[in-house]
Amino acid sequence: MARGIKKRDYEKLDDSTIGRVVELLASEKPISKKEACEILNISYNTSRLGRIIAEYNDKISYRAERKRKNRGKSFSDFEVKDVILSYLKGESISEIASSLYRTTDGVKQVLLRNNIFIRSKKGDYAHPDLIPDENLSEEYNPGEFAWSARYNCVVEILKLAQLHKEHGNVYKIWVYGKHNEFGSQPWYELGKLDFLKTLNIAGTEFSTTNRLSIIERID
């Protein structure tokens, strides 16, 4: 919410909910202001409801104007790094686009040009996506960062755990982000992140966890 409106914890004043209320109020059969307040989980107060909607509309107009000015403009070096770091930290493409006043397609193209793995909505731990051939490597060094298809995030290579007869090189890894755990993965489920060196990105810049809380996953 804009800074002029004080939000209580139980109130639903996120952009998505307010936007839905605005649409319902402007529909062919509009809801009442009382119903609008109920959806937002706020006390029935038409003056406050009006201020909330006005600030939301101002925000939407501001975003539209910023997007219009950015249309056709190349991403700056700062924006490119911000897109990559935000994505590696787990933010969605739409969230990044909104924060930078860019289109989702523009953000996605930045990721693709820099060989960033696009998180799949279908892949999961038991059925990871395939790593593109150009990003595969059987060899990793301790301390190197890689993309994990199984965890759908960045991991740090700790050591070569074993040379498996069937799976080849299997690496001990530290999984960043929400997982915050050790794990093991074969080389073909890991992807090279050589661009991190090119952009001078250190692991500490996208890491959101430390190793104090440890869970050992046995794969």
Q: How would the blueprint of this fold be written?
A:
Layout: H1 15-25, H2 33-40, H3 46-70, H4 77-88, H5 93-100, H6 104-113, E1 145-148, E2 153-164, E3 168-175, E4 181-186, E5 190-192, H7 195-198, H8 203-206
Antiparallel strand pairs: 1-2, 1-5, 2-3, 3-4
Cα Rg: 22 Å
CATH topology of the largest domain: SH3 type barrels
Helix amount? 25-40%
Number of strands: 5
The H-and-E topology, N to C, reads as: HHHHHHEEEEEHH
**Distance N to C terminus:** 43 Å
CATH architecture group name of the largest domain: Roll
Describe, in short, the structure shown.
Helix content is 37%, strand content 15%. The chain is an alpha+beta fold and 219 residues long. Helix 1 (15-25) packs antiparallel against helix 2 and helix 5 packs across helix 6.
Attribute tags:
SH3 type barrels, 15% strand, 5 strands, five-stranded antiparallel β-sheet, disordered C terminus, alpha+beta, single chain, 8 helices, 3 domains, 219 residues
Please describe what this structure looks like.
Strands 4-3-2-1-5 form a five-stranded antiparallel sheet, with no helix packed on it. The C terminus is likely disordered. It folds into three domains: 55 residues; 37 residues; 74 residues, Roll (SH3 type barrels). Helix 4 runs antiparallel to helix 5 and helix 5 packs across helix 6. It contains eight helices and five strands. By secondary structure, it is α+β, with helices and mostly antiparallel strands.
